[in-house]
Every structure is written in structure tokens, then in C-alpha cells.
Amino acid sequence: LLELPSICELAREYVVQAGLSQRIAVYPADMFAEAWPTGFDRVLFSQILHDWSPPVCRTLLERAHEALAPGGAVVVHEKLVDDDGGGATHRPDGEGGEQERDGAADQ
Predict the structure, then answer these.
(1) Active-site residue, from 50, 65, 77, 90
(2) For position 85, what pLDDT does the model report?
(3) What is the mean pLDDT of the chain?
(4) Which of 2, 14, 26, 31 has the fewest CB atoms nearer than 10 Å to its CB?
């Protein structure tokens, strides 16, 4: 978990409470200003990219790619909203929701 230093102590507490200390490490850093740790099999952006412009998102995704081990993947989790931003995206046929696409990190 790459997070601002002020959040890391709380994040570590949640990781320990969940019993995931052997699987999740917490790294204090500013995602824009500091080097990212490297060698990971996955980099997850959860509710991050929607806050930034396309050029900034591209920079973040490039940095994520550099943090990956060979064969790793970037995973993006975002809420999709209507064009007016007023609610969740809805398809008339009732389909929709979160989707996973193999090879997404290769794009």
C-alpha cells in the first residue's frame, strides 16, 4: 500500500487487524513526488484515477508500470457514473457493473 505518511499508521493497523501483515506492506510516499517501491505482481488503483486529468493519470499509470515485476498487472477499480455525474452508470438491458479484462495491463 503506497499512501501518504500521515495515513500509514492507520493503514498498518487495518492490515494487522485483517491478518494480512504477511501479504500487504505499507509504504509511506507521495505518489507524485517520491520514488515508488518496485517488484510487485499487482498495482491497484482504487478510486484514484477519477480525481485526476488524463495527463496526470497517464503519469500515474506509467509509474505503476515501472513498479511492476515482469508479468505484473495494473488493476483499476473506479465507480462509473452517468455523463452528468449524478449517479451510477446503468444500462437499459440491466447489464453492467464491474468487469475484469485479461491482459488489461498490456494495453
Answers:
(1) 50
(2) 65
(3) 84
(4) 14
